[in-house]
Write a structure and sequence with these properties.
Layout: H1 2-7, H2 14-21, H3 25-31, H4 37-55, H5 63-74, H6 82-94, H7 96-121, H8 128-151, H9 156-168, H10 174-177, H11 181-185
């Protein structure tokens, strides 16, 4: 992330990365297929953790509450890691080849939600409602991440919590119900 921030993603070469990491190109390619994959390693692990968290949700917990709680739980970051995470989110948003590489990584995360919804509803995982909820959850979470990365002093988990609550309630009456940016930054929610 340091090299990408200092030099730009496109301008940072594999030689720059392997030199800074003190590994050979062969070692690099043992773990990653490309330099873009460096940015997705933790996200891919998060999808696995999210799936496990959803599987542990209590039966009586409403489904969308279970989704919200699991997503918020797997997205707690230490304050010292937030600057790097913000840089990563902004890179993925602003570099076309990174945005293009996102779909396979997003699919695993989305599928964790869809499979959970399918289990809860008794529907096939690839049917309308599970897929729609998985994709909608991914969309609101991506939006929460992007808004947080661009201009927030609030914690990421607050953005995720509010966005997923809105989704769970069908975005009912967003004019009067959902907090403003200033409200998100306050501790009063």
């Amino acid at each position: 992330m340091r090299l990408f921030s200092e030099q730009g993603f496109r301008e940072t070469t594999l030689d720059d990365i392997t030199s800074a990491a003190r590994v050979s190109r062969t070692t690099f390619f043992r773990y990653f297929d490309s330099k873009a994959d460096l940015l997705w390693n933790e996200f891919d692990a998060e999808a696995v953790t999210l799936r496990a968290r959803l599987e542990q949700s209590p039966e009586g917990l409403p489904t969308m509450d279970a989704v919200r709680q699991a997503v918020v739980a797997v997205n707690h970051y230490q304050p010292e890691n937030e600057a790097e995470l913000r840089a990563q989110v902004n890179l993925v948003r602003s570099v076309p080849e990174l945005a293009a590489s996102a779909s396979t990584h997003y699919e695993a995360w989305e599928r964790a939600i869809s499979d959970f919804i399918a289990l809860r509803t008794g529907q096939p995982a690839d049917s309308l409602i599970p897929v729609a909820v998985g994709r909608a959850a991914l969309a609101v979470c991506r939006t929460a991440y992007e808004q947080w990365a661009q201009n927030s002093t609030a914690e990421l988990t607050r953005y995720l919590d509010v966005a997923l609550r809105a989704l769970g309630e069908g975005f009912a009456d967003p004019v009067n119900m959902w907090p403003t940016e200033a409200m998100l930054a306050s501790r009063e929610l």
